[in-house]
Design goal:
The structure is a homodimer. In chain A, a hairpin with a 2-residue loop joins strand 4 and strand 5. Chain A has two domains: 284 residues, Aminopeptidase (3-Layer(aba) Sandwich), CATH 3.40.630.10; 123 residues, Alpha-Beta Plaits (2-Layer Sandwich). The first copy, chain A, is built from 13 helices and 20 strands. Chain A has a six-stranded mixed β-sheet, sandwiched between helices. A four-stranded antiparallel β-sheet of chain A has the order 12-14-10-15, with helices on one face. Chain A has a three-stranded antiparallel β-sheet with strand order 4-5-20. The longest helix of chain A is centred in the first third of the chain and has 23 residues. In chain A, helix 1 crosses helix 13, helix 3 packs across helix 13 and helix 11 crosses helix 13. By secondary structure, chain A is an alpha/beta fold. The interface between A and B is large, with 101 and 101 residues.
Chain lengths: 456, 456
């Protein structure tokens, strides 16, 4: 069987790439309303790709937001079913001036596919579409396959919970498989065993009712930028702990074993700093880099703006200043509770010289998956087969807000089998996905189905 | 004479307005390179308006930046000469979405002229052009008149010092007259006796060498927005004093008399707050509002930006954050020294997790004019004639960076006879200039020349 898979992939590898590049050419930016038509176009393209790969059926299903693509190939209802979750939407490409090539004009350079969405997540979910094709066309499917490819992951999946709840029977599965994360490296394969939760808020600080001349009014009326800066300065103490009251209340203290496990991941601090171009790392005192990005919650300012930001100088005292702020959460924090704590903080520290509006953008709960489930064991075996090395379980720093809801609604565990790398520039200019990783993923996925069927 | 002036103005008032509106239609934004051609076009229009008003000569003179317009009407070299300084450049109009009508499509509404530059300074220097016309056309000039209308005031006059130094003979004068400031109100005419100096800098904070995924890297590498916010939070203490070491070292302590004089200005705190739409004012403890905006130095953040500032959410950990920051200076602070102190502060408080670039945009020294000079007395008499009330001397909060250089190079005092109002929305959306103020200015200026000639 493995030879037939390999031969089929080898024979079709150029087409497998070209098809994925076509998908990358559609600017499916879910955050921006101007891309509404592109979202529909992208959903249609995903649907068609599933049908072409051999799915029995595939359809674009409307939601209150961007559509969901559902597809399936049922070989035998008595066999185990694997539901692949992925997303066809991408992060906004800005700042555009930092891209070396157009974000939606994929370029292959030094074995890397440069485009927005190449790794997150078009390139990764498409590996599953091609794995379906390989197994279907070589008559070697070992499980039923379902696909749930959504268009709102990057904006917090606001409509997916309702969709899943309304289609439980359709989505019924034995395991959920997601490729939307990274490997430690090609030499050190790994499997994520957790995703952090998210609370993403926006804060608006208003001083005077209009922009003012900074000479005429400066010093006599509050500057919302100055006030916002003070609020932000107050969220971390000198040890870079988050100093908002209650923030750490529900954080699960890692066991010695968990900390030991995290230390297994190979880590070269000098290499890490060199890659980022920094002299010194920053972070919460008392924790290692992997702990900071894996088992500890964080609070980052994702954007700030106010006043004059153009060329040259303008002596304005602005009326408003804004910030986009997000916390990454770990077990047993609740996104709902942390959101309230964050909104309260920004409202309560505001002096009476300004007014503050703080609102939730979106959130999601942290998620953990056990390392002894059938799915995890199948994934570990699959990676060992193609990477010739047992994968290390690691805690991912990112978030897939819908995870806890998927598990709750469908009653099964989620397996994170990502094939990206940390330096793929996700959410940043020059996002890339290594060709090698793309092909390795396609090669590995059929083994997951094989081993999962055997475990079952 | 006064009847002839009045009759001429009355007969031509509609044209006086139309001509000014034509000037406002040219988007002469000096800060933005895309308006280079508009700047030249505006300079040509100013030159032509001077010739049409009766100037003997007028010309557009090139500098290393935007051109200067010079014009003159010499009636008798033995008579005193008044040099009018003004500027035809304007502040950038952003944020455009807050304008009720186009910034360069002047609209008259409720007796107010809405357009960028209406009060600052096209509408104000044009009063002098029309005053020239009135006196020239009624054969009643009492002084020689010179005009120096520059195109770089809003960007700190980087090329004017060199120009003035190179044309001392051409610009030779007995007094410099500037209308680029405000009256307390139409009921309480006032004359500015000081302008604050300026140090305008830009700060760039860099963390990692590229934008990062806030889930993968957040908590492990410095966020430049967080660091910049901490830097900004550190510039004011709890009493809103500026806490940067050395900032107040050279500030002249106001005498009891000066503070008493400032109290003469009518001030209704409730009205002031209501106009600005704030519950509480903000400012340095121990000083009144007029002291804060007049005799005390201030430090304002004019703009801040970094990360994602678009619609929706993006979970990015940005590589860079920026701020535009300016200090208003009072005697005896030196712009050069304060600029060094500011640049040093931002560089020295930077932790080793980031790199900081801090650079000067532009600066200018504070300026004071005595209240017993011939020019001041002539201006006070002129205002008393048309407003029927003796003007109050006040300390202006704004800056005209070139003042100290003009006085030094030309060896004469500057008189600030502005006809705007504090609520003209200078540097803000919906800048306006009241029609009443425009016409009152045109009516008042000829008296200045008359009284100045008599004093001489």
């Amino acid at each position: 069987m493995s030879k037939a898979w390999k031969d089929y992939q080898e024979k079709n590898k150029d087409r497998f790439l070209e098809e994925m590049l076509d998908l990358l050419r559609i600017p499916s930016v879910s955050a921006k309303s101007e891309h509404k038509d592109d979202m529909q176009r992208c959903a249609d393209a995903v649907k068609n790709s599933l049908l072409a790969a051999g799915a029995d059926k595939a359809e674009v299903m409307q939601t209150d937001g961007h559509p969901v693509v559902y597809g399936e190939k049922i070989i035998d209802p008595s066999k185990p079913t694997v539901l692949v979750y992925g997303h066809y939407d991408v992060q906004p490409p800005e700042p555009l001036e930092l891209w070396h090539s157009g974000p939606f004009e994929p370029v292959i350079k030094d074995g890397k596919i440069y485009a927005r969405g190449s790794a997150d997540d078009k390139g990764q979910f498409y590996m599953h579409v091609k794995a379906l094709e390989i197994m279907a066309k070589t008559n070697s499917m070992t499980t039923n396959m379902k696909f749930l490819i959504e268009g709102e992951e990057e904006v917090g999946s606001p409509n997916l919970a309702k969709f899943v709840s309304a289609h439980k029977e359709l989505l019924k599965t034995d395991v959920i498989l997601i490729s939307d994360s990274s490997l430690l490296s090609m030499e050190n394969p790994s499997l994520d065993i957790g995703m952090r939760g998210l609370s993403y808020i926006q804060v608006e600080v208003t001083g005077a009712n209009r922009d003012l001349h900074s000479g005429t009014y400066g010093g006599a009326v509050a500057n919302p930028i100055t006030i916002l800066a003070k609020m932000i300065a107050g969220i971390h103490d000198k040890k870079n702990h988050i100093s908002i009251p209650g923030f750490y209340d529900d954080v699960a203290v890692p066991t010695k074993e968990e900390r030991k496990l995290l230390k297994k991941a190979p880590y070269d601090e000098e290499e890490y700093k060199k890659d980022l171009g920094v002299e010194e790392l920053w972070g919460e005192k008392g924790f290692t880099t992997y702990e900071r990005t894996g088992i500890r919650p964080t609070l980052e300012i994702n954007g700030i703006w106010g006043g004059y930001t153009g060329e040259g100088a303008k002596t304005v005292l602005p009326s408003k200043a804004y910030a986009k702020i997000s916390a990454r959460l770990v077990p047993n924090q609740s996104s709902h509770k942390i959101t309230e704590i964050l909104l309260d903080y920004f409202k309560s520290v505001a002096p009476p010289t300004v007014t503050v509006k703080a609102e939730l953008h979106h959130g999601g709960e942290p998620y953990m998956t056990p390392i002894d489930s059938k799915g995890y064991l199948a994934a570990a075996k699959a990676l060992k087969t193609t990477f010739k090395k047992k994968p290390i379980p690691v805690r991912g720093g990112g978030s897939i807000p819908i995870c806890s809801i998927l598990e709750k609604e469908l009653g099964v565990k989620i397996i994170f089998m990502g094939f990206g790398l940390d330096n793929d520039n996700l959410h940043s200019p020059n996002e890339k996905f290594n060709l090698e990783n793309y092909y390795k993923g396609i090669e590995t996925i059929p083994y997951f189905h094989k081993f999962f069927a055997e475990e079952g």
